[in-house]
Amino acid sequence: MIRLAIVACAALITVTSTVAADAQSSSLTSATALVVYKLAGPTIGARPASLDDNPKFEGYHILDVEVVSKPETVKQIVAVVASQLKASGNPAACFQPGMAVRILGSGSVTDVLVCLDCNNMSVPGSTRLVAIAPEARRILAGFYADVFHSAR
């Protein structure tokens, strides 16, 4: 069942290419929904063959996908993402995102990769890694747990 949901939402991955800065700003201010991807993090040893058929998001295997359209949740997550992308901080050297958030606005899209292990986020296509502040990490980790019904 999970694989079917992943394949059904894979079209959202292939339809959208790297987003320009003005489109990123537009989708952050006009966001109406989020597509949240649970990504396969780092593994020790060989990656399980069962992941080979899963679609990828920016090179990371997708384990699960959910669409979030509750206005309060969309607004909260977009506010956290926007504030963190504007902030400065010292990002960690590692980056193995376990979550991706696609922010859908009116006619625009912003993708963000999030690593809750090293507390960093990045916009695909950018070389800039952004450190996530403790309060933002708490909100994003809670959001991840709520969406995927698991502790993080």
Notes on the protein architecture:
The chain has 152 residues and is an alpha+beta fold. It has a single domain, classed as Immunoglobulin-like (Sandwich), CATH 2.60.40. It contains four helices and seven strands, in the order H-H-E-E-E-H-E-E-E-E-H. The chain has helices spanning 2-15, 21-29, 71-86, 134-148; strands spanning 33-39, 56-57, 60-68, 99-105, 108-115, 120-122, 129-131. A seven-stranded antiparallel sheet has the order 2-3-1-4-5-6-7. A hairpin with a 2-residue loop joins strand 4 (99-105) and strand 5 (108-115). Helix 3 (71-86) runs antiparallel to helix 4. The longest helix has 16 residues, at 71-86. The protein is globular. The two termini are 23 Å apart. Mean pLDDT is 80; it is low at 6-23.
Features:
single chain; 152 residues; alpha+beta; Immunoglobulin-like; seven-stranded antiparallel beta sheet; 4 helices; globular
Concise structural overview:
The chain has 152 residues and is α+β, with helices and mostly antiparallel strands.
Number of strands: 7
Q: What is the H/E string?
A: HHEEEHEEEEH
Second-tier CATH architecture: Sandwich
Biggest sheet architecture: 7 strands, antiparallel
Low-confidence spans: 6-23
Radius of gyration (CA) equals: 15 Å
Strand content: 25-35%
Mean pLDDT across all amino acids: 80
CATH classification class: Mainly Beta
Task: Note the total helix count.
Answer: 4
* CATH level 3 topology: Immunoglobulin-like
The global form is globular
Distance between the termini: 23 Å
Q: Order of strands across the biggest sheet? A: 2-3-1-4-5-6-7
Helical percentage? 25-40%
